[in-house]
Structure formats: C-alpha cells, structure tokens
Amino acid sequence: SFSSAYFNKGNCFASLNLHNQAIEMYQEYLKLEPDSILGHVYIGESFDKTKDYEQAEAHYIQATEIDSDCVEAWFGLCMVSLNQSEILNAIKFVKKAIELNSTNEHYWLTYGILLKNQELYEEAIGSIKKAIEIDKAVPESWIELADIYYSNNLFEEATDTLRKGYEHNADNAPLLYTLA
C-alpha cells in the first residue's frame, strides 16, 4: 500500500539520520493512517532529533491517546522533557515507561541518572542496580553506579563496582579507563 511505502521510506531516512526527510515521509504516512501509534512515535523521535520538541511532544501525546500503554511514547516524552531540562516531567514519564515495561534496563538506567541528578542517591542506586540486574553487559550502568559512590566519598564501593562491571565488560575501554 501507499501508506507503508511512506512509512518504510521514513524509517530509511531516519536510520540515515536524515530526520527532516523522515518527518516528511511520516507526515504523508499519517495523512493516510492517522491512528498509527508507531507513525506518531517515529515522527516524534525524528522531531526530537531535530530539536522540535513541541512537535515531538504532540506526537508522543497523540500516541498515548491512541494507546495509553504505548511504552515507547512515554519514554519519548521522558527524553523530550529531559532535552528541555524538565527533569521532574522526565522522571514522571520514565516511571510510567517502567510501570509498563519493568524489564527494560535502559528505562531503569535513565531513571537512576535522573534521580542522581536530583541528588536522590539511595533511590538512584536502587534504580541503577535494577538496570544491572537486568543486563550486566551495559557498561554505562556500572560507571553511573560507581560515579554515585565516588561522589559520596564511598571510594571502596566505587572501585568494587567498576571491578565487577569490568568482569562483565572486559572489552569496554571507557570502563577500563574509569577503573584505572
């Protein structure tokens, strides 16, 4: 169908980081398929990448109005809020994403980083540990956890965390550099 051709072309442009062209294709797609959740999510992502946060937010909201369980849209709203330094909104939206998908380590890590930036260290540690529990092979989680320990003068915990992280990510240069 014509609509899927526009959608697929939009995906191709987006994968090449040609987000303005992707937006044009997604707009054509949404004219034909106005209730497409993925159409709204994907155009939201492209608007976010071009820093048109108002349009990104509008499309993510539209996706949540079509399906209130659209986790990608809630996380998209988190990222749009974060990109505009609206940290409390970002926290609210990532919590909704976690509520809908509690097994996504990236959501837990993002939540932990947001909490860390609010100096809510205990909660941040719990969230980042949850991210690590889900996937030990994500070096950023180990580095963020060690950073919280380090910034709270818990040097032994920070070093132990980096060592454990290195055991699971031996080929990761930034983790090794941080450990050194």
| Cα distance spanning the termini | 56 Å
For the sheet with most strands, the description reads: none
DSSP, total strands: 0
The gyration radius over C-alpha positions equals: 19 Å
What is the subunit organization of this protein?
Answer: single chain
On the 0 to 100 scale, the average pLDDT is: 94
Low-confidence stretches: none
The proportion of residues forming helix, as a percent range, comes to: over 70%
Large-scale geometry? elongated
Describe this structure in words.
The chain is mainly alpha-helical and 180 residues long. The chain is 79% helix and 0% strand. It has helices at 2-15, 19-32, 37-49, 53-66, 71-83, 87-100, 105-117, 121-134, 139-151, 155-168, 173-179. The relative contact order is 0.07.
How do the strands and helices of this protein lay out in sequence?
Elements: H1 2-15, H2 19-32, H3 37-49, H4 53-66, H5 71-83, H6 87-100, H7 105-117, H8 121-134, H9 139-151, H10 155-168, H11 173-179
Helix pairs in contact: 1-2, 1-3, 2-3, 3-4, 3-5, 4-5, 5-6, 6-7, 7-8, 7-9, 8-9, 9-10, 10-11
Would you summarize the structure shown here?
The chain is an all-alpha fold and 180 residues long.
Pick out its properties.
180 residues; mainly alpha; 11 helices
